[in-house]
Amino acid sequence: MIERDDAVAYIAKLERDLQAAQSRIAALEREAELHARYARDLDRRLAALLSVSAALLISHDIEAIIKLVVQQAVELFPGTANAHIYLIENEQDCRLRLRASAPEHAPAPAFSVLAEMAAKAPRALLLSGPELEYVIHQQHTAHPLSIEDCLWPQSVLLAPLRIEQQRLGALVICGEQLSHLYHPRDLPFVQALADLTVIAIDEVQQRQRAAALQRDLVHTQSLRAEAEARLNAAQAQLLQSAKLAAVGELSASVAHEINNPLYAARNSLYLVEQDLPPDAPQRTFLAIAQQELGRIARIITRMRDFYRPSRGELTSANINALLRETLELVTTHLRHNHVTVRTRLANDLPPIVAHADQLRQVFLNVILNACDAMPSGGELTVSSELIAARAGAPATLAISITDTGVGIAPEHIPHLFEPFYTTKPHGTGLGLAISAHIVTQHGGRITVDSQPGVGTTFTILLPLEPPVTAS
Amino acid sequence: MAAYRIQIYDDDPTAALVTQRGLQALLGDEVIVQATTNANEAWLACANGNVDLLIVDPSPYGAAAALIRAVRTYRPYLPILALTAYDTPGLRARMQALGVELYAAKPIELRELAPLVSQALHQVV
Q1: Is residue A356 situated within a structural domain?
Q2: Is A459 inside any structural domain?
Q3: Are A456 and A319 in the same domain?
Q4: For residue A470, is pLDDT > 50?
Q5: Separation CA A102–CA A235 (nearest Å)
Q6: Response regulatory domain: which residues (chain B) (predicted)?
Q7: Do A324 and A436 fall into the same domain?
Q8: Peptide linkage before A394 cis (omega within 30 of 0)
Q9: Is the per-residue pLDDT at A212 higher than 90?
Q10: pLDDT per position as a tens digit, A1-49
Q11: Which of A265, A276, B84, B94 is deepest in the core (most CB within 10 A)?
Q12: Any CB–CB contact under 8 A between A254 and chain B?
């Protein structure tokens, strides 16, 4: 009997043990299932974060990045009603502005309080239940909350968007009302999402900054090149005009110093000549000496005129004779440069009233320029003719000087007659300027027609009588 | 008729000599030409009253301006001829301002200078 009772008790014990074991098994099974769910959950989140980071890497636009992040946040945390990103608009007052929401509708105004709190936080925060409500009421005493405002989510996840010491904004994720509470283990994920976002935003900003700097650099470099070119031009011009001023001043002072000895020499010769008998053999060389001294006197006057405008005498001049004289003067120079000269001078040209010396200077300048334009030789054509624009109009002399040289580039043509404009490394830029001045003083015009590679023609038009002001 | 007296002041002695000899040769017995490189000497000659024409070289290094001012003050009617190697429009204007009515620029030839001088002398009454 006792044995049977013992057996019954033993069986009952075994049954209890069995039950306990079964319940433990059930508990373990539940736990295993829970772990499996966590594992799946973690896998899912990891995959989501990885895809976010991959997407952020290739995205070059801040708007696209933050939109992607809020969408992914809703996916990443089950039970999320909506997610928002606020960014700091300007760094002085740290004012936050809502920049992206998912789903796309504006959150309650009081959410900005949460955003501010998140932006100032060092790490991600989880707020839920009464704690959340307390925070909102604390911050919002100035503005009483409306009924809708009071329909609070049970919990929110907040994360600051910051890189190093710089605050960029905040990420706010809200759970569905009355349904879901976030768990503290969500915090590393929300922090990771926020960090990813911030890195992506920062990279875009750095890239924009780099592009802006690059543009600035290019701009600055071009400005610098331009300024350098201008400086060089100005320096060259300054040097040129300083040289000219020095030459002018020197020649003027030399001219003046020479005048006294010249005066004494030529007049002494004159006095000697007065005492000689008319048939004295010395007269020949005396005359040469006097003639040459006269030439010195004229050169001195020219040197002085380099510094101040000439006041030469108007005389009746033969243009053809002037042209021949000028050509004779440069015959050697032209031959030396393998330049052949052709002349087409019209017969029976009427004499012209002009400053002969000055016109000679004009012809000389233009002919020497033509010679310079033919470094490997060529042909120089000098022609003169009488033209009348129309019947009854005052007659005009046209002198053309044509070379078969390198020609003048079109961009130089408008500046040819400007003083100090020169394309020659050793030019003064004065020859054509002075020439144009002289021709204008005579009431005439000087024109140029040039074709690069073919040659250049300078045409000088002179009225037979200069205007009254020219004298 | 007494000869006209011409006083030359030129701080270049050679130029002074040539002007003196030249004018003397060209104008002959009609004139007595004296030259000096000393402004004071020229001034004394003018002040003594025996000068009919003063020829001055207003060189920037000489005392011509002072001489001209002094002569203009004490002998307002004495004709003065400026004969300069430093001809510029500025000098011409300055000479006019000082009351110098005659002006010639070196290296003028003597045969051009002589008529100028002779004309100036004959205007003196």
Answers
A1: yes
A2: yes
A3: yes
A4: no
A5: 65
A6: 5-121
A7: yes
A8: no
A9: yes
A10: 678 888 999 999 999 999 999 999 999 999 999 999 889 888 888 888 8
A11: B84
A12: no
Residue A182 belongs to domain with CATH number: 3.30.450.40
> In sequence order, what DSSP letters do the residues of A398-415 get, joined into one string?
EEEEEE-S----TTTGGG
Distance between B104 CA and the closest CA of chain A, angstroms:
12
Specify whether A294 is located in the same domain as A319. Answer: no
- A341-374 confidence digits (pLDDT tens): 999 998 888 888 888 878 888 898 899 889 988 9
Q: CA-CA distance, A334 to A328, in Å (whole number)?
A: 10
Task: Establish if A217 belongs to a structural domain.
Answer: no
Given this model, what pLDDT does residue B101 score? 87
Instruction: Write out pLDDT tens, residues A64-87.
Output: 888 888 888 888 888 888 889 988
> What architecture is domain B4-123?
3-Layer(aba) Sandwich (3.40)
Q: Which residues of A touch B106 (CB under 8 A)?
A: 259-260, 262-263
| Closest-approach residue (CA) in chain A for B23 | A271
- A39 and A71 share a domain? no
Q: How far is B117 from chain A (nearest CA, A)?
A: 16
Task: Identify the pLDDT of residue A471.
Answer: 39
Residues A252 and B85 sit within 8 Å (Cβ to Cβ): no
CA gap A381, A346 in Å, rounded:
13
Domains of chain B by residue range: 4-123
Greater confidence (A77 vs B32) lies with B32
Q: Are the beta carbons of B46 and B74 closer than 8 angstroms?
A: yes
DSSP A104: S
Contact yes or no for A44/A187 (Cβ under 8 A): no
Q: What is the ipTM of this complex?
A: 0.86
- Asked whether the CA dihedral A362, A367, A368, A369 is positive or negative, the reply is positive
Domain that holds residue A100: 56-209
Give helix A356-372 / helix A431-441 axis angle, nearest 10°: 140
Is the Cβ pair A266, B107 closer than 8 Å?
Answer: yes
**Spatial separation of the C-alpha atoms in residues A38 and A49, rounded to whole Å:** 16
